[in-house]
Write a structure and sequence with these properties.
elongated, mainly alpha, about 290 residues
Length: about 290
């Protein structure tokens, strides 16, 4: 289904801010790691010292840019807006409450979209102009409303419920796998750092046997794991996938429009609840003191 234009611009804004945030974090880690490598053997040369200072300045610059722009906040807000618009659009298309074939449905939809936009005006500066003025009540949304209940249910099960079930299942698996892999990488780095330290104890004059870069790399991996929250998201997404699976089993029992409306409302509440929890987890991580 083609969603309101507001969803498209919010979705793209979220993706851009997410890429900017992770890019800045990785750039800061890379600069600090390079500084740690260079500090192993400080060469008394002007160019070497300038390079060292430039890398240290780059790390500081990325921190300042990230602190000023706060791309993670804009990422969370834009994603929240996009998901809220998507939920509202599906309810409208499925004739689910509060859009139950009332003459005021279209006005109500416009008002709800306006309220969502008003509540998220802080991310408006990130919207691109390519489709911001597009249709907010699309032809596909209107067409779906006109279908018989059984056909609307089929579309909703295929394009919304099954799509969400597949997404959460895949994300649960990928996050759990990534969490295990990064844990193994972190463990290996600590072991290697310990071995390098033993070598340094045996050969104290060998300056290149220095564990500091490895320790900093391990700290960067640990920081990345905390930012991405692989294990927590893997478990959370797995629970949501199970909840959607249980919800899916109710579909054969839907016998009238009222039952479909309740089903869609419950399903969208489940999707929104997971996103709200995701937003709360991300915000808690952002606000946590360093």
């Amino acid at each position: 289904m083609k969603f309101p234009a507001l969803h498209s611009v919010a979705d793209r804004a979220s993706d851009r801010q997410q890429s900017l945030y992770f890019g800045l974090v990785l750039a800061e880690y890379a600069a600090l790691l390079a500084v740690a490598v260079l500090s192993v053997n400080m060469i008394p040369d002007r160019r070497y010292i300038i390079l060292y200072g430039a890398l240290l300045g780059a790390a500081l610059a990325t921190l300042v840019v990230r602190s000023v722009l706060k791309p993670e906040r804009r990422w969370y807000q834009a994603r929240a807006l996009a998901e809220s618009v998507k939920t509202t659009a599906w309810k409208f298309a499925m004739v689910a409450r509060p859009f139950e074939h009332d003459a005021e449905d279209r006005r109500r939809l416009r008002e709800m979209l306006q309220e969502l936009l008003d509540a998220n005006r802080s991310v408006g500066s990130q919207f691109d102009g390519s489709s911001a003025g597009g249709d907010q009540i699309t032809g596909e949304m209107e067409a779906l409303r006109m279908l018989p209940r059984s056909e609307r249910l089929d579309v909703y099960m295929r394009d919304r419920v099954e799509d969400q079930l597949d997404w959460y299942s895949r994300k649960s698996k990928s996050n759990s796998t990534a969490g295990r892999r990064f844990a193994v990488i972190l463990g290996c780095l600590y072991v290697i750092a310990f071995v390098v330290l033993l070598i340094r104890l045996d050969q104290p004059r060998w300056i290149y046997a220095h564990p500091d870069p490895l320790i900093l790399l391990g700290a960067s991996v640990l920081g990345w794991m905390q930012i991405k929250r692989f294990n927590e998201l893997g478990a959370s997404y797995g629970l949501t996938a199970a909840e959607i699976g249980i919800l899916k089993s109710r579909a054969p029992e839907i016998a009238d429009d009222a039952a479909l409306s309740i089903f869609v409302d419950d399903a969208e509440e489940a999707f929104s609840r997971e996103h709200t929890q995701w937003l709360a987890r991300r915000s808690a991580l952002r606000d946590r003191p360093n």
